[in-house]
């Protein structure tokens, strides 16, 4: 390089991620388990208000609809699966399955973050990892499926990914780390281990990406504003991905 040449500015890792092209929607459809007849519905379900064209161009209306679709599908599944449960038990099970953390974990297993359509500010601010956005988009996708193919199609996705017919599954509000540890111990496996994969953000507002490792399984990954939150997210993602049952059910399966 000559003495007069101006060195090119360094591009940060965050900036590179911001300009990374989104993967094909067909990949997301495969993970969800539904191929859209009207793919515009899926695109709108992935569009944040920061990138929306017009008042109704974002996922917000679909989120409203999907929240109701999810609630009905889960309630119907629980009603059929738990014939001896009273209203209080059913309500507690329902609350655990439809809460934001569960929706965000499901969105994580679908890899929604990479497909989000965000304004530049949201991208640079970590919007693809934002648990609130992921939870909202999960519900919006269910709303989009409902409009695209009806309630039966949406219910099939809920049954596959939220598992309302399995009362002992982890995404019911239980502490994910405890559930995973108990499951591992019930199978004489070492206690799950957690490691920091990435730490970003300033000291006063850090963001962590954690990995959890269980012998014989692929690692699970989670993100959050503290190690504790990210560890819980990682454990929840692994449990959801593997369909791991609570200890009582896991023990029954091995007998």
What do you see in this structure?
This protein is mainly alpha-helical and 255 residues long. The chain has two domains: 12-167, Orthogonal Bundle (Ribonuclease iii, N-terminal Endonuclease Domain, Chain A), CATH 1.10.1520.10; 169-255, Double Stranded RNA Binding Domain (2-Layer Sandwich), CATH 3.30.160.20. 53% of the residues lie in helices and 8% in strands. Mean pLDDT is 82; it is low at 165-173 and 247-255.
Structure at a glance:
The chain is built from 12 helices and 3 strands, in the order ααααααααααβββαα. The protein is 53% helix and 8% strand. The protein has helices at 13-18, 25-32, 39-45, 60-81, 87-98, 100-110, 120-124, 131-149, 151-161, 176-186, 227-242, 247-254; strands spanning 193-200, 207-213, 220-224.
Q: Radius of gyration in whole Å, from Cα?
A: 20 Å
Q: What coarse outline follows from CA principal-axis ratios?
A: globular
**What is the number of helical segments per DSSP (H or I, 4+ residues)?**
12
* CATH level 4 superfamily of the largest domain: Ribonuclease III domain
What is the averaged pLDDT score? 82
Please give the CATH class of the largest domain.
Mainly Alpha
User: In the residues, how many domains can be counted?
Assistant: 2
How many beta strands in the DSSP annotation?
3
Largest sheet: 3 strands, antiparallel
Distance between the termini: 71 Å
Biggest sheet: strand arrangement: 1-2-3
Strand residue content: 5-15%
